[in-house]
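Worked example 3. Consider a protein that binds fructose -6-phosphate.
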Amino acid sequence: EKDGYAHYMLKEIHEQPRALRNTMTGRIDEAQKKVIFPTLQLTPESVQKLEKIYIVACGTAYHAGVIGKQVIERLAHIPVEVDVASEFRYRQPLFQKNTLTIVVSQSGETADTLAALREAKRNGSAVLAITNVVGSSIAREADDVITTNAGPEIAVASTKAYTSQLIGFYLLGLYLAQGKETVDQQARAEVLSALQELPDQVEAILAHADGIRQYAESIKEENQLFFLGRGLDYAVSMEGSLKLKEISYIHSEAYAAGELKHGTLALIEEGTRVIALSTQADLYEKMVSNITEVKARGAVVLGIALANNMELHRSVDEVCLIPVTNELLTPVLSVIPLQLIAYYTSVALGHDVDRPRNLAKSVTVE
Ligand code: F6R
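Given these inputs, the predicted complex is written out as structure tokens:
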């Protein structure tokens, strides 16, 4: 049932190209270069009225939401707040008119996310669910559903569910942009065609995973590690850090690179391992200066950048290059090496990759 893979997690990592294609299937009008969601109650007319969006989820789904926020704000110019469900449900969020609440959940059964959905509905907000499980509680109770169609995810550590949730957000962001008429048609068409190239690009990364396996071997004795990034790279860092903690039990922290000097820099010493994501052109110089700061304190840095970056290798100890894509879409590619680092580190340490200690696949209690 693992199709020859040693673990479900590795199988699911490799299923991502197919999962991403399935998330897109039936949702793109090729002739018009538009996103279509024929079954949504959220019609282009109702999109025009939207003034505010909440995104609510837990864990990895929350990390997808952090990216979703930036995607929707940039494409559709609607202000978005993103919350962890267990916080949202008790913090008495203000629901204005014309607010949409988006809940994200692989299983569709996470107790806090379901409670947040109910709280939103009680306050008169329309609710759209991005979920992988058709017929789940969250899918049944939401007004609208975008199914990710990634197929069953068995490993506790979420991989293909996350990247397919990202695709869900890109499609939704484009759909909202069409309704709001924010970004011009040509710019939208560019994002859309780059989106359609992602599955092949993920495949290309997976075909060259050997270097990552060696890297994992080199960090397995560490007891702490830092992930740094800005903007979308910071959001991906959060997911990379969670994945590593979850299955390798190595403590790590994701840090917004600009926040380093406000405390965390004190933890960097000779030999501290840092993974620095740097895929955003407008933030590149800033990242290089943060990398220089940690290097000056002895950090050993792996940089993750786009393949057209000819410079980063001069500032770091090792680089991992990912295929070039539209700037908004880099998370789908940059997270793949991070998933593999977590996986191979867990394997190198002899842990139970698919069933890490203390964790359950579906958290149906508070
Ligand atoms: C991490 C992980 C968890 C889940 C979280 C939400 O790898 O799997 O953080 O993402 O428990 O689960 P769903 O998406 O089912 O609501």
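Take a moment to read the result before moving on. Residues 185-207 form the longest helix (23 residues). The first strand starts at residue 28 and ends at 29.
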